[in-house]
UniProtKB/TrEMBL annotation:
Signal peptide per UniProt: none
Keywords: Cell membrane, G-protein coupled receptor, Membrane, Receptor, Transducer, Transmembrane, Transmembrane helix
Superkingdom: Eukaryota
Subcellular location(s) per record: Cell membrane
InterPro entries found in the cross-reference section: GPCR_Rhodpsn (IPR000276), GPCR_Rhodpsn_7TM (IPR017452), GPR40-rel_orph (IPR013312)
Topology with respect to the bilayer: Multi-pass membrane protein
Record's protein name: FFAR3 protein
């Protein structure tokens, strides 16, 4: 928002540009991945209702959440690599 108000010129310190891009893109990836995981879980609940009836274990949910966070953050870390190694 600060960039738009300043006429599409980055007004903040240069170090914050990759951080802002990282936060923006990782939130997009995370919301998409969590929606996909929720859709898979709902499909499995409809397709195999008796098998998945008692499997709401917190450990599996936490592991899946951590895996999604790791996947999204590692994918979006290219913003830092490109910014500090000549990608501009």
């Amino acid at each position: 928002m600060a960039e738009v108000v300043a006429g599409m010129v980055w007004p903040l310190p240069a170090a914050l540009c990759p951080v802002a891009n990282f936060c923006f893109y990782s939130s997009i990836y995370l919301s998409s991945l969590f929606l996909a995981a929720l859709s898979v879980r709902r499909y499995l609940g409809v397709a195999f209702p008796l098998r998945l009836r008692g499997q709401g274990r917190l450990g599996r949910v936490a592991a899946a959440s951590a895996l999604l966070w790791l996947l999204a953050c590692s994918h979006c870390s290219i913003v830092f690599v490109a910014s500090y190694h000549g990608g501009g």
